[in-house]
């Protein structure tokens, strides 16, 4: 059965190779705290395979390969915040509907996509993701953990929670010799990124600008240099530094891992 919403924004999944992790970092931990419960609604998109959730407006590509799995959600623009909410994690409970499963059952999902407004529909009759509504368009497998999928739309309560990651950050490179575009994945703690910097082995720290989703860019000549990255979380305000993430012979299209992460 098709979801109530079918228009979530998708991007082309890029191919990549994973290369070894960096082995040095510095950080000052500030822990992200769980937020209060709030009211919203949830729908689903795609089918039981969650194949339609691949890609997405955050730029995470293949969600299975990159560790996000099927417990994911597309956020309404009110929650998505122009991509700054990419990677944030939420606990969601179905509440107040006969279609809910056992009371207290909840799922934890990661924001990987945008559920865009549908201005042709009233926000209470089809335009579920229209501002100022807080809304989650879940993958179908995630929706089916808390309610009968035949409901189509359910009332929920949700709260922000820390993102738990067993491994470090992942940086996928795109761009060219004069422009570096970095997809940042597997972010723990608050799950989000407020600011990002890159440092070549021959440069100082260069501020990167937000491109879209969870991607940041630097207009600089960085080829032939080992690269380090510094990131600040919007939620926890923690800043970490991942030194020597990519070797001097780094390549566009590759993904480089670091053994550091937010808490």
If you had to describe this structure to a student in words, what would you say it looks like?
With 263 residues, this protein is mainly beta. Helix content is 3%, strand content 39%. It is built from 2 helices and 16 strands. The chain has a 10-stranded mixed sheet, with no helix packed on it. It has a 6-stranded mixed β-barrel with strand order 3-7-4-6-5-8. A hairpin with a 6-residue loop joins strand 14 (227-232) and strand 15. It is elongated. Residues 1-30 have low confidence and may be disordered. This is Expansin.
Key words describing this protein structure:
single chain, about 260 residues, mainly beta, ten-stranded mixed β-sheet, six-stranded mixed beta barrel, 2 helices, 16 strands, about 40% strand, elongated, disordered N terminus, Expansin
